Amino acid sequence: MKTKKIIYYVSTGLLTVLLLFSAGMYLFNHDEIAGMFTNFGYPTYIIYPYAVAKIFGLIAIWFVGIEKMKEWAYAGFFFAFVFAIFAHIMVGDGEQMGAIIAMILLVISYIYKKNK
Fold first, then answer.
1. 8 Å CB contact between 74 and 61
2. Is residue 47 a contact partner of residue 30, using CB atoms and an 8 Å limit?
3. What is the spatial distance between Cα 110 and Cα 29, in angstroms, rounded to a whole number?
4. Which whole-number Å values give the CA distances from 15 to 9, 10, 42, 103, 107, in the listed order?
5. Distance of CA 96 to the CA centre of its chain
6. Contact 33, 40 (CB under 8 A)
7. Domain residues of the chain, as ranges?
8. Which of 39, 50, 58, 72 has the CA that lies 20 to 30 A from 26?
9. From CA 65, how far away is CA 97, in angstroms rounded?
């Protein structure tokens, strides 16, 4: 039982670090991120709301006691990572590894959330 908790907290912690870094980049390095979003064909006005959504999703996973909110946060991150992986692949910039790592951490966190 203790091993499952450790796996959950390590994977969720690493996912949190990754997402906070990403949200920080969105908030504090807007020009570079705007260039990437333009290359992907995404509008740049979604950068700030997307950063805030990542932070709210992390809050839901860590602190909200309502299970449905956690499920929605995990689902939102899942779709965001899938879209990020395919966006990087379609543009061909070779930067999809961060999204793949995030997806792996998300799946591990979700599986062990159920079993902790």
1. yes
2. yes
3. 30
4. 10, 8, 24, 9, 10
5. 13
6. no
7. 2-115
8. 72
9. 32
Burial of 114 (0-12, 13-18, 19+ CB in 10 A): exposed
Would you call 24 helix, strand, or coil by DSSP?
helix
Q: Tokens representing 75?
A: 């689902």
Sequence-ordered list of residues with C-beta below 8 angstroms from that of 49, at least 6 positions apart, any chain: none
Place of tokens 């969720």: 12
Phi, psi of 64 (to 5 degrees): -80, 130
- The count of C-alpha atoms lying within 13 angstroms of the C-alpha of 9, restricted to the half-sphere facing its C-beta, is 7
Token pair for residue 28? 């504090």
Give the helix/strand (H/E) hosting 71.
helix 67-91
Cβ 85 vs Cβ 100: under 8 Å: yes
- Give the separation between CA 74 and CA 26, rounded to whole angstroms: 20
Q: pLDDT in tens for each of the 116 residues of the chain?
A: 799 999 999 999 999 999 999 999 999 999 999 998 998 889 999 999 999 999 999 999 999 888 999 999 999 999 999 999 998 898 888 889 999 999 999 999 999 987 76
